[in-house]
Design brief:
Strand content: 15-25%
Number of domains: 3
Protein name: PGAP1-like domain protein
Order of helices and strands: EHEEHHHHHHEHHEEHHHEHEEEEEEHHE
Number of helices: 15
Shape: globular
Strand order of the largest sheet: 4-14-5-6-7-8-9-10-1-13
Radius of gyration: 31 Å
Largest sheet: 10 strands, mixed
Oligomer: single chain
GO molecular function: hydrolase activity, acting on ester bonds
Number of strands: 14
Structural class: alpha/beta
Distance between the termini: 52 Å
Amino acid sequence: MKWRVTSSIGGGKSYTAAAREEYAGIAQVLDDAASQLSGQATAWSAAALQLGNYRASGICQLTGSGASGLAAGSDAADFGIGIDHESLPYHALIEGCDNAAVQCQTLSQGLSAMASLLVRAHSLYSQAEHATRGAMNSLMEGSGTILPWQTAAGFLALATGGAIASSVGERRFNPLGALSSTAWAQEGALRAASNHVNVRAMGVSGLGAGVDRAAGILSMGTSRLVDFAQGNLLRVERVEATRPVVGESHSVAQSLANLQRLAAQRRDAAGASANGNGSNLDYGTIAIQKYRNADGTLSWLVTIPGTDGKPDSAFGWPHNLEVMSADAGQRMRGDSARMVAEAMKQAGIGSTDQVALIGHSQGGIVAAAIASDMKDSYRIEHVVTAGSPVANHPVPHSTWMTSIEMEDELVAALDGAANPSDEHWLTIRGRALPEPSGTSPAINADESCLPGAAPAFVNPFSSAPVEGAAERKESTHHLRYHQAAYRNASDLGSPAVQWHERHFQDIVSGKLEETSYWQGRMASGPPTAPGERIGARTPMR
């Protein structure tokens, strides 16, 4: 089974009311023309059926010169005149009607698809969709706060149904269908859960305080456990790659590809090292690239993969809570945020140099935290996140945000909120669907042949293929799904996407001078040598 991703676009470049109305009018004209053509197709099909009925009933056309001179109402047999009967060319007429019906229906579908693409490319109804999503989140939050057990039971039943449907469809157990069936309720459910955490810690004032506040409360306990397990001394050092991994990039798509390659080094480190093909880039490794602009100034691109789960890594699972906190100091005390900030300092990024950051999952959360909390230290111009819950981060308006999310990945919904929708914050939301497939020829028991059906035509602009996807349904949190979502949004020709793409390209338009790799590990006890650690974080109060 192949998978494709279709994208919707929210935020980014906005239109005047007049321009939006004009685009909507064009889309309506296309839809109306599609409806008329669909009606014509129905009429032609009805004509073909009627002709078939005529042929079956034996209705013929009277011809022959002997009958041409008879008076009206006369019976030719009374005059002994022979009459020739000739059947109408029913086969040709029916075939012509069927062909006309197919042509009209094809044109109708094409115009309807064009109207849909126009609506998606220009985000004509994104405001209404954003409002609807917010209303659904509020409804789910209210239900889960007032009736927690009943809501949890309903959510569990919905998830179970999705898992069963997915397993039946694939004819093997696959629980990931639970994510698809609950995608619409995930953010609201997280908000409801956060209300219970906040009320326990803050009293009634905790109602509506948000997921970020709950994350900060929970991280007060988890951070101590993490410090006990892996220590609180962070060592950040530059490492050399044994082979090229992150190449030169001058676009968001190229940077996403580099991000995936760097993340793959973490996943495949053990097997690659055993085969002698390792790159020496495992653990919490990030890449920092220095670009020299034509005017002599410097620009930087920081590539930050997500959680690696290694026991002494600064990018472990529990570190997510701290960098999602509502408190700026708590966010920057998170080990992953400290690690990236220290690497940026050691790499030599200046306070006036343009900086772009791109991150997946926890890497995107860290990028948003740095943009929010280090705006006085660095000139963070653009942040690209993929599958990262960053809606609650107070990113300054001067920083452009391009967020890519999948509808059923769950991770991006952990912030319990939709991203802000304005000119500088663009959100691309992808939805993964199986690609239509044909059927193979078959031989029946009586040795008759059943011809196969060709796969349905897929409009190349309606969706983008997921390269390297598994045959069965898998978690769409994998970066390849975000890459497909961005590719489809770009193929649509969306002005909002193009606007953000140009802004990102302007930052990395110079000549690449250097790519450095930085690794962060946690340790207990004193450092072994000066410069190998940045010390312990301030204890939480």
